[in-house]
Write a structure and sequence with these properties.
The protein is built from 5 helices and 17 strands. The chain has helices at residues 2-37, 57-67, 94-104, 239-243, 250-254; strands at 47-50, 54-56, 71-73, 84-86, 90-93, 107-112, 115-120, 130-133, 136-143, 154-157, 163-165, 171-176, 182-186, 193-196, 205-206, 217-220, 223-226. A hairpin with a 6-residue loop joins strand 13 (182-186) and strand 14 (193-196). A 4-stranded mixed beta sheet has the order 3-7-6-8, with helices on one face. Strands 11-10-13-14 form a 4-stranded antiparallel beta sheet, with no helix packed on it. A 3-stranded mixed beta sheet has the order 12-9-15, with no helix packed on it. By secondary structure, it is of the alpha+beta class.
Length: 264
């Protein structure tokens, strides 16, 4: 009886392990698919094939939507559907096709990721008729000099207060506008690191301890600790920065000065 029970337990354990392996495989597959979906392309990089050389603007925009990932938004009053535009037949980039439109109409196009806004442009005002803004998805992991993950590391876009912090396993994920070129990693007791983004989508960082700051005492909500023993995320606001803000209250001066902190 005991042997039979052991066999049953062994078989159930084996099936349970197989189930976990299969579940893990599908989970990784879904995460990978989701990550690829976040890689936006410029309209200059996306090519489509048109089977016609002349079209109304609404029909042309619909054809582009059906052949690409882009979606157009516009005020119907800004587009005259009676205007027929000449477009390059065959395989061309979406930007080249829309360039034909802007050369013969008073319309402009602004791409933000996969959305393209169509707007009427005043010919007296000199503005770019085609603008492209692509947000980048940056992710990675932050570790210390011994390879251990660092939770609570502040990750900011350089010269801004916008960013995120690493989770309990040192991982982070951040959406970065196209014009941002550098990320700044900071953590109490460690030297700050600045990393150029370039064409990278994954940025892993190893932070080195700041020997001078490890002995500093940090005041926290429930007492004081040496900086070397603090494991939670801590932001620093300098008094000089607060004095430069023309507001009557301290709470207003602190607002927006630290990532993830809301002052009420």
């Amino acid at each position: 009886m005991k042997t039979k029970l052991q066999k049953v337990i062994f078989m159930l354990s084996k099936y349970f392990i197989y189930g976990l392996i299969i579940q893990s495989f599908f989970l990784n597959f879904l995460l990978a698919s989701d990550g690829n979906a976040q890689r936006y392309k410029s309209m200059k990089e996306v090519f489509i094939v048109l089977e016609f050389e002349r079209s109304s603007i609404p029909d042309l925009l619909e054809a582009i939507e059906n052949s690409s990932q882009f979606k157009f938004s516009y005020d119907i009053k800004d587009i005259d559907d009676k205007i027929i535009v000449s477009v390059p037949k065959g395989r061309n980039s979406v930007a080249a096709i829309l360039d034909r439109v802007v050369n013969t109409t008073a319309l402009g196009f602004k791409q933000i990721n996969n959305d393209i806004n169509v707007r009427k442009i005043d010919k007296k005002v000199r503005v770019a008729k085609i603008e492209i803004t692509i947000d980048k998805q940056i992710s990675g992991r932050v570790r210390d000099e011994s390879g251990q993950p660092l939770p609570g590391v502040t990750v900011l876009m350089k010269n801004t207060n916008k960013g995120t912090s690493t989770d309990s396993d040192g991982y982070y994920k951040l959406t970065v506008p196209d014009e941002v070129t550098t990320l700044v990693f900071s953590f109490i007791g460690y030297l700050s690191e600045e990393v150029e983004i370039g064409n990278l989508s994954t940025i892993d960082v190893v932070m080195m301890p700041d020997v001078q700051k490890l002995s500093e005492v940090v005041v926290i909500g429930y007492g004081t600790q040496q900086a070397r023993n603090v494991t939670s995320a801590i932001s620093t606001v300098k008094s000089k920065d607060l004095r430069e803000v023309p507001v009557p209250g301290l709470d207003q001066a602190l607002q927006g000065r630290a990532a993830g902190v809301q002052v009420t």
